Amino acid sequence: MKAFRAWSPFVLAGLACLFGPALMAQAPPSDTPDPTAGVSNTMAQRMQACVGCHGPQGRATHAGYLPRIAGKPAGYIFNQLHNFKAGRRHNAAMTHLLQHLSDDYLRDIAQYFSELDLPYPPARPDGLTPERRRMAQTLVAQGDPERQLPSCISCHGEQMAGRLSAMPGLLSLPPDYLVAQFGAWRTGLRKAHAPDCMGAVAQKLTPDEITAVSQWLSAQTLPLGVKPAPASTQPLPIACGSAE
Fold first, then answer.
1. CB neighbours of 234 closer than 8 A, spacing ≥ 6?
2. Could you tell me which residues come within 8 angstroms of residue 231 by beta carbon, excluding any fewer than 6 positions away?
3. How many CB atoms lie within 10 A of CB 54?
4. pLDDT in tens, 47-91
5. Nearest Cα to 196, choosing from 238, 156, 240?
């Protein structure tokens, strides 16, 4: 618990609400003022434990390996929270935060972030050559039928803002985060419910394709108010156990 004292009062207050007073009561007595005193017990306050890493209101920037979670489908957020808790995804901090939370509360967290309608960062140069940009755009919009590689938009929506009930939006995510996730799928470090569609897709992409697609996706933006696409009435182009 000593490590918590080095965190900001806002994150500390969020942890107090997230885990309950019993956890914070374990801290040894201190003469310093209690930063959680008078804190309102709302979901926004509780989620300070999340936005301390994921950025204000869950809208992360291009920097680093931490993704935007604001506005993603609730089904997707819940699946990822549960994957961290169950060991299908690996991050010590996430596992520590989630291991004692119930599935019902994970759904509450997912619902809270899914309902946030917040601006995306502005578009920026992708740093790609014209040839590599065309390659990235082709993979995103058309895929590669000869390799049985579906397009990104066929699952993640025409605007790449995600698709209900559990497909995430991909635009404006940090390029390092995207590359790291593709790498985790390729090596088996990241898993999802079988059949693991993204694991299969990652295996078919070359390292250069992964880098180009990640750079292109990270440089795009979306106008305010864009929502994940409705659930498709057509089957997905690839079997996907995490689609719902």
1. none
2. 163, 164, 165
3. 17
4. 998 988 898 888 876 567 889 999 999 999 999 999 999 999 999
5. 240
